[in-house]
């Protein structure tokens, strides 16, 4: 009987196509919270994705296919994200009470005011945020636009990997969604909760500052774990694959900690400091309540502690799964290790539980 009243929504896999790997996340929602049903990470061939652009669609498709097999998930529908310089987001105001179709028509007509690309090359999406402070009878609408090619390459890669794309998101929104799970563990100050999330990936470091759960600033820099991998390759004569593995599993010569890892950690602290300075210069803020480290490089032992000591701000490694239960398909210690790199995949999987989103 229950199913008559509680319509079961189809769940979506979160698929994060990043520059070094593809990542899969399947979540389900139980009465006492979320459960990780399945997850996996599969490396990508070198240069298959460069700075968020898919260069080698077959390579990505093949990796997705392996990823799905590895995860043992049965779901076939997925959400993916676009990001980077090709994505434009903008908050606009519209008359309240319009139907979705009326809004869509009006946005199509007015879009050339907001979007600096030829409209036939652009995919547009919008979301009504709520009543606007800018006037009675107005609603704030969040507009997201991106080159159609960017979306299509992701959809095609998924299809090659045996999945169907059901939702295309923007990375910043996925991050925001995953971040909501971390809020209960954080203590706000008088002017709300201001958190700097620093995603240190392989090639990119993205600073996102959120105030009360909403993104107020983002900035990307070319910096990441690649620097450390390259230093290991150079110093110990290893291939990229060997160096990548050694970073995670250890077994490097004795001088590694002091001669290679420590200077890299110092460089991370410098990057975080500099990114924050850019934020402070561009905003009325001169402090954040917390720094959360995300991205694979955040897993380096002792890094959060070092950032905390040098910058003087409470710093933690982001783990959106801390209060979730796990299915027996999921290895708990692997998940804890990979957690900071899975923020985007997690935020994408969470779209399954947002009504009317797809
Ligand atoms: N336990 C670990 N210790 C040190 N480095 C790690 C560990 N786990 C992963 N990494 C590093 O994290 C990086 C990958 O992180 P992540 O998956 O966030 O990157 P990405 O999203 O693919 O890259 P980008 O954000 O640049 O597109 C690699 O440099 C990898 O070597
Ligand atoms: Mg990344």
Question: What does this entry look like structurally?
Answer:
This protein has 358 residues and is an alpha/beta fold. The protein folds into 2 domains: 1-90 and 148-182 and 320-358, ATPase, nucleotide binding domain (Nucleotidyltransferase, domain 5, 2-Layer Sandwich); 185-318, ATPase, nucleotide binding domain (Nucleotidyltransferase, domain 5), CATH 3.30.420. The chain is 35% helix and 30% strand. It has helices at residues 2-5, 57-71, 100-110, 148-160, 171-180, 226-236, 240-249, 256-282, 303-311, 332-338, 343-349, and strands at residues 13-17, 21-30, 33-43, 49-50, 53-54, 77-82, 87-95, 122-131, 138-147, 164-170, 194-200, 204-211, 214-222, 290-294, 315-317, 325-326. The protein has a 6-stranded mixed sheet. Strands 13-12-11-14-15 form a 5-stranded mixed sheet, with helices on both faces. Strand 8 (122-131) and strand 9 form a beta hairpin. The model has no long low-confidence stretch (mean pLDDT 92). It binds adenosine-5'-triphosphate (ATP) and magnesium ion.
User: Looking at CATH, which topology of the largest domain would you report?
Assistant: Nucleotidyltransferase, domain 5
Overall mean confidence score, pLDDT: 92
Biggest sheet record:
6 strands, mixed
Secondary-structure element sequence?
A: HEEEEEHEEHEEHEHEEEHHHEHEEHH
CATH architecture of the largest domain: 2-Layer Sandwich
Low-confidence stretches: none
- Tally the helices: 11
Number of strands: 16
Please state the structural category.
Answer: alpha/beta
Rounded to an integer, what's the Rg over CA atoms?
21 Å
List the ligand species. Answer: adenosine-5'-triphosphate, magnesium ion
What proportion of the residues is helical, as a percent range?
25-40%
Question: CATH homologous superfamily of the largest domain?
Answer: ATPase, nucleotide binding domain
């Amino acid at each position: 009987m229950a199913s008559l009243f509680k319509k079961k929504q189809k769940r979506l896999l979160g698929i994060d196509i990043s520059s070094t790997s593809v990542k899969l996340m399947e979540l389900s929602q139980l009465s006492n919270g979320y459960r990780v049903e399945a997850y996996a990470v599969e490396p990508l061939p070198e240069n298959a994705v460069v700075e968020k652009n898919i260069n080698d669609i077959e390579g990505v498709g093949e990796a997705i296919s392996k990823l799905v097999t590895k995860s043992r998930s049965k779901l076939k529908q997925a959400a993916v994200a676009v990001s980077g310089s090709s994505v434009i987001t903008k908050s606009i105001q519209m008359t309240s009470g319009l139907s979705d179709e009326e809004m869509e028509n009006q946005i199509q007509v007015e879009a050339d005011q907001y979007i600096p690309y030829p409209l036939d090359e652009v995919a547009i999406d919008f979301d009504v945020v709520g009543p606007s402070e800018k006037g009675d009878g107005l609603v704030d609408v969040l507009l997201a636009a991106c080159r159609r090619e960017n979306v299509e390459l992701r959809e095609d890669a998924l299809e090659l990997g045996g999945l169907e794309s059901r939702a295309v998101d923007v990375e910043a929104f996925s991050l925001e969604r995953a971040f909501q799970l971390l809020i209960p563990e954080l203590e706000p100050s008088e002017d709300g909760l201001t958190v700097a999330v620093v995603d240190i990936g392989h090639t990119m470091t993205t600073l996102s500052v959120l105030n009360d759960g909403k993104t107020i600033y983002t900035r990307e820099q070319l910096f990441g774990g690649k620097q450390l991998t390259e230093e290991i390759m150079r110093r110990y004569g290893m291939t990229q694959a060997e160096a990548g593995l050694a970073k995670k599993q250890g077994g490097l010569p004795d001088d590694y900690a002091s001669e290679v890892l420590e200077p890299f950690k110092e460089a991370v602290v410098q990057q975080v400091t500099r990114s924050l300075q850019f934020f402070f210069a561009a905003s009325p803020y001169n402090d954040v309540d917390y720094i959360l480290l995300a991205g694979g490089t955040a897993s380096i032992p002792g890094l959060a502690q070092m950032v905390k000591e040098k910058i003087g701000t409470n710093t933690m490694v982001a783990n959106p799964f801390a209060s979730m239960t796990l299915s027996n398909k999921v290895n708990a210690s692997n998940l804890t290790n990979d957690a900071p790199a899975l923020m985007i995949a997690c935020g994408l999987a969470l779209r399954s539980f947002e009504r009317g989103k797809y």
